[in-house]
Amino acid sequence: MSKHPYSLALTVTFLLLGIACSAIAQSNNLEENKKTAMQAADLWHSGSKVNPDSILAPNYINNLDSATNLSIGSQKRNLKEFKAEVAKFHTAFKNVKLIDSMQVAEGDLVATHVKVSANHTGSFMGEIPTNKTITWDAVEFVKIKDGKILETWVTWDKYGFLKQIGVLK
Q1: Domains within the chain, CATH numbers bracketed
Q2: Is it the case that residue 128 has pLDDT exceeding 60?
Q3: Per-residue pLDDT tens digits for 36-46
Q4: pTM of the full predicted structure?
Q5: Which residues contact 151 (CB under 8 A, 6 or more apart)?
Q6: What's the rounded Cα separation, in Å, for the pair 111 and 105?
Q7: DSSP string, 121-134
Q8: DSSP-derived 3-state class of residue 50
Q9: By the 8 A CB rule, do 62 and 82 touch?
Protein backbone atom coordinates (compact mmCIF):
# COMPACT_ATOMS: atom_id res chain seq x y z
CA MET A 1 0.00 0.00 0.00
CA SER A 2 1.27 3.46 -0.86
CA LYS A 3 2.11 5.85 1.93
CA HIS A 4 0.47 8.73 0.09
CA PRO A 5 -3.35 8.71 0.30
CA TYR A 6 -3.74 10.43 -3.06
CA SER A 7 -1.29 8.28 -5.07
CA LEU A 8 -4.00 5.92 -6.37
CA ALA A 9 -6.20 8.86 -7.36
CA LEU A 10 -3.27 10.57 -9.07
CA THR A 11 -2.35 7.38 -10.93
CA VAL A 12 -5.91 6.91 -12.15
CA THR A 13 -6.14 10.60 -13.13
CA PHE A 14 -2.91 10.44 -15.17
CA LEU A 15 -4.04 7.20 -16.80
CA LEU A 16 -7.40 8.72 -17.79
CA LEU A 17 -5.68 11.87 -19.08
CA GLY A 18 -3.39 9.72 -21.20
CA ILE A 19 -6.34 7.82 -22.66
CA ALA A 20 -8.24 11.05 -23.33
CA CYS A 21 -5.22 12.66 -25.05
CA SER A 22 -4.76 9.56 -27.19
CA ALA A 23 -8.45 9.60 -28.18
CA ILE A 24 -8.28 13.31 -29.05
CA ALA A 25 -5.14 12.75 -31.17
CA GLN A 26 -6.81 9.84 -33.00
CA SER A 27 -9.96 11.90 -33.54
CA ASN A 28 -7.92 14.79 -34.98
CA ASN A 29 -6.07 12.34 -37.23
CA LEU A 30 -9.36 10.86 -38.46
CA GLU A 31 -10.65 14.34 -39.29
CA GLU A 32 -7.42 15.15 -41.16
CA ASN A 33 -7.70 11.85 -43.05
CA LYS A 34 -11.30 12.66 -44.01
CA LYS A 35 -10.21 16.09 -45.23
CA THR A 36 -7.46 14.51 -47.36
CA ALA A 37 -9.91 11.95 -48.79
CA MET A 38 -12.34 14.74 -49.72
CA GLN A 39 -9.51 16.61 -51.44
CA ALA A 40 -8.90 13.48 -53.55
CA ALA A 41 -12.57 13.50 -54.60
CA ASP A 42 -12.20 17.20 -55.37
CA LEU A 43 -9.53 16.41 -58.00
CA TRP A 44 -12.36 15.36 -60.32
CA HIS A 45 -14.30 18.62 -59.90
CA SER A 46 -14.08 21.61 -62.21
CA GLY A 47 -11.84 24.37 -60.99
CA SER A 48 -10.20 22.19 -58.36
CA LYS A 49 -7.21 23.91 -56.77
CA VAL A 50 -5.92 20.69 -55.20
CA ASN A 51 -2.38 19.74 -56.20
CA PRO A 52 -2.41 15.92 -56.57
CA ASP A 53 1.20 15.72 -55.37
CA SER A 54 0.21 17.35 -52.07
CA ILE A 55 -2.22 14.56 -51.15
CA LEU A 56 -1.14 11.49 -53.14
CA ALA A 57 1.98 9.49 -52.24
CA PRO A 58 4.64 9.11 -54.97
CA ASN A 59 3.93 5.34 -55.02
CA TYR A 60 0.14 5.92 -55.16
CA ILE A 61 -2.06 3.19 -56.64
CA ASN A 62 -5.61 3.87 -57.87
CA ASN A 63 -7.98 0.93 -58.34
CA LEU A 64 -10.74 2.39 -60.49
CA ASP A 65 -13.54 0.93 -62.54
CA SER A 66 -12.49 2.47 -65.83
CA ALA A 67 -14.85 4.62 -67.85
CA THR A 68 -12.39 4.80 -70.74
CA ASN A 69 -13.12 1.25 -71.86
CA LEU A 70 -15.79 -1.31 -71.18
CA SER A 71 -13.56 -3.82 -69.42
CA ILE A 72 -14.94 -5.51 -66.36
CA GLY A 73 -13.26 -5.09 -63.02
CA SER A 74 -10.79 -2.78 -61.44
CA GLN A 75 -7.74 -1.41 -63.19
CA LYS A 76 -4.67 -0.32 -61.27
CA ARG A 77 -3.14 3.03 -62.13
CA ASN A 78 -0.01 4.62 -60.77
CA LEU A 79 0.16 8.34 -59.97
CA LYS A 80 1.09 9.39 -63.52
CA GLU A 81 -1.67 7.26 -65.10
CA PHE A 82 -4.21 8.55 -62.59
CA LYS A 83 -3.36 12.19 -63.38
CA ALA A 84 -3.77 11.41 -67.11
CA GLU A 85 -7.20 9.83 -66.42
CA VAL A 86 -8.36 12.93 -64.53
CA ALA A 87 -7.09 15.24 -67.31
CA LYS A 88 -8.86 13.12 -69.96
CA PHE A 89 -12.09 13.33 -67.96
CA HIS A 90 -11.82 17.12 -67.69
CA THR A 91 -11.57 17.50 -71.48
CA ALA A 92 -15.00 15.92 -71.86
CA PHE A 93 -16.86 17.14 -68.77
CA LYS A 94 -17.30 20.68 -67.50
CA ASN A 95 -18.99 22.13 -64.43
CA VAL A 96 -18.21 18.98 -62.48
CA LYS A 97 -19.49 19.47 -58.96
CA LEU A 98 -20.27 17.64 -55.80
CA ILE A 99 -23.98 17.43 -55.02
CA ASP A 100 -23.79 15.41 -51.82
CA SER A 101 -21.27 13.48 -49.74
CA MET A 102 -20.76 11.50 -46.56
CA GLN A 103 -17.68 9.99 -44.94
CA VAL A 104 -16.65 7.42 -42.37
CA ALA A 105 -13.08 7.03 -41.07
CA GLU A 106 -11.39 4.36 -39.00
CA GLY A 107 -7.67 3.97 -38.49
CA ASP A 108 -5.87 4.73 -41.75
CA LEU A 109 -8.94 4.13 -43.95
CA VAL A 110 -11.60 6.61 -45.09
CA ALA A 111 -14.77 5.75 -47.01
CA THR A 112 -16.35 8.59 -48.98
CA HIS A 113 -19.66 8.46 -50.83
CA VAL A 114 -20.28 11.25 -53.33
CA LYS A 115 -23.01 12.23 -55.74
CA VAL A 116 -21.60 14.20 -58.66
CA SER A 117 -23.03 16.16 -61.58
CA ALA A 118 -21.27 17.28 -64.77
CA ASN A 119 -22.00 18.71 -68.20
CA HIS A 120 -20.98 16.35 -71.02
CA THR A 121 -19.41 18.92 -73.37
CA GLY A 122 -16.62 16.97 -75.10
CA SER A 123 -16.06 13.68 -76.87
CA PHE A 124 -15.68 10.76 -74.48
CA MET A 125 -15.15 7.12 -75.45
CA GLY A 126 -15.80 8.16 -79.04
CA GLU A 127 -19.25 9.52 -78.19
CA ILE A 128 -20.16 13.02 -79.30
CA PRO A 129 -21.06 15.43 -76.49
CA THR A 130 -24.66 15.25 -75.33
CA ASN A 131 -24.41 18.69 -73.68
CA LYS A 132 -26.59 17.17 -70.95
CA THR A 133 -26.01 17.41 -67.24
CA ILE A 134 -25.49 13.91 -65.95
CA THR A 135 -25.28 12.62 -62.38
CA TRP A 136 -23.77 9.55 -60.76
CA ASP A 137 -22.77 8.12 -57.39
CA ALA A 138 -19.35 6.86 -56.35
CA VAL A 139 -17.84 5.26 -53.27
CA GLU A 140 -14.14 5.63 -52.66
CA PHE A 141 -12.00 3.96 -50.01
CA VAL A 142 -8.59 5.49 -49.37
CA LYS A 143 -5.65 4.29 -47.30
CA ILE A 144 -3.64 7.14 -45.80
CA LYS A 145 -0.18 7.16 -44.26
CA ASP A 146 1.64 10.25 -43.01
CA GLY A 147 -1.02 12.53 -44.48
CA LYS A 148 -0.79 11.14 -48.03
CA ILE A 149 -3.04 8.69 -49.84
CA LEU A 150 -1.25 5.43 -50.65
CA GLU A 151 -4.08 3.58 -52.37
CA THR A 152 -7.64 4.18 -53.50
CA TRP A 153 -10.41 1.71 -54.35
CA VAL A 154 -13.35 3.17 -56.27
CA THR A 155 -16.69 1.74 -57.24
CA TRP A 156 -19.27 3.87 -58.99
CA ASP A 157 -22.42 3.85 -61.08
CA LYS A 158 -20.47 3.18 -64.27
CA TYR A 159 -23.45 1.85 -66.21
CA GLY A 160 -25.77 4.72 -65.31
CA PHE A 161 -23.01 7.14 -66.31
CA LEU A 162 -22.36 5.37 -69.64
CA LYS A 163 -26.08 5.22 -70.39
CA GLN A 164 -26.48 8.96 -69.80
CA ILE A 165 -23.70 9.80 -72.29
CA GLY A 166 -25.03 7.35 -74.88
CA VAL A 167 -22.40 4.59 -74.76
CA LEU A 168 -25.00 2.08 -73.50
CA LYS A 169 -28.58 1.96 -74.64
Answers
A1: 7-164 (3.10.450.50)
A2: yes
A3: 999 999 999 88
A4: 0.77
A5: 60, 61, 62, 63, 142, 143
A6: 6
A7: -S-BTTBPP---EE
A8: coil
A9: yes
